[in-house]
Design a protein that fits this description.
Length: 209
C-alpha cells in the first residue's frame, strides 16, 4: 500500500484534491489538522500534556480546550508556541503512523493520502512514498480565502509569508497539480494522470480485484 503526501500553500485547493481522491478512488485521507484537533480532546495523552503545560485556564466549563484562547496565548510568545508544537506535532505524526499501520493490516484501502500544512518541514517525506504539490497562484489563493473564509488581504499575505516559497515546494515534490483554474475538471484530469504515471492507480485496481 502506497502513501501519498499532499501539500501546498494556503488557499491552493488541497481540500478539493483530497475529496476527489477519497470519493473517486476510495483512498483513506488523513489530515494532520484534524488529527491534531482529535488529540487535543479529553482522554488523549496530548490533551493531558497541553493542560499540564498551559494550565486549566485554557479550558471551558466542560473541560475542553478553548482553541482560540490557547492560540492567543502561544502566538503572543514564540517560546510558548514552540512548547505547544513540541507536544502536538510528534503526537500527530505518531497517530498518522498508527492509522497507516491499521490500514495496511485491514487490506481494504488502495492507498493512503496524508495532508499537512508542514508536510515538508516536519519530515513527512520519510513516511510518504511521494509528495505532490497543489499549486495555485497568489492572486487566486488570495481571492479564494477572502471569499470562502472572510480573510482580509493583510491576513492572507501574513499567512503566505510564513509558508514555503513556491520554488521549494516544486523542488521537493514529485508531481505538481495546477489548481489555479476555477474549472475543477482540469484538476481532476491531472490527478488521474498522476495516479496512472506514478503507479497509484494500478495499485488501486489490483487492490479492488
Amino acid at each position: 500500500m502506497k502513501i501519498l503526501g499532499i501539500t501546498g500553500g494556503v488557499g491552493a485547493g488541497k481540500s478539493t484534491v483530497l475529496a476527489y481522491l477519497r470519493e473517486r478512488y476510495g483512498a483513506r485521507v488523513i489530515q494532520a489538522d484534524e488529527a491534531g484537533r482529535l488529540l487535543q480532546t479529553p482522554g488523549h495523552d496530548c490533551y493531558d500534556r497541553i493542560v499540564r503545560a498551559f494550565g486549566r485556564e485554557i479550558l471551558d466549563v466542560q473541560g475542553c480546550i478553548l482553541r482560540a484562547r490557547l492560540a492567543e496565548l502561544v502566538f503572543a510568545d514564540r517560546t510558548m508556541l514552540e512548547k505547544l508544537n513540541h507536544i502536538v506535532h510528534p503526537a500527530v505524526k505518531e497517530y498518522i503512523l498508527s492509522e497507516i499501520s491499521a490500514e495496511r493490516k485491514s487490506g481494504r484501502t488502495p492507498f493512503v493520502v496524508v495532508e499537512a500544512a508542514l508536510l515538508l518541514e516536519d519530515g513527512y517525506d520519510r513516511i510518504c512514498d511521494e509528495i505532490w504539490y497543489i499549486y495555485a497562484g497568489r492572486q487566486t489563493r488570495t481571492r479564494r480565502l477572502m471569499s470562502s473564509r472572510g480573510y482580509t488581504q493583510e491576513k492572507v499575505q501574513s499567512i503566505m509569508q510564513n509558508q514555503l516559497p513556491e520554488e521549494e515546494y516544486r523542488r521537493q515534490c514529485k508531481f505538481v497539480i495546477d489548481n489555479d483554474s476555477d474549472f475543477v475538471e482540469n484538476t481532476f484530469v491531472q490527478i488521474d494522470k498522476g495516479l496512472i504515471e506514478h503507479g497509484f492507480l494500478q495499485h488501486c485496481q489490483r487492490q479492488q480485484r
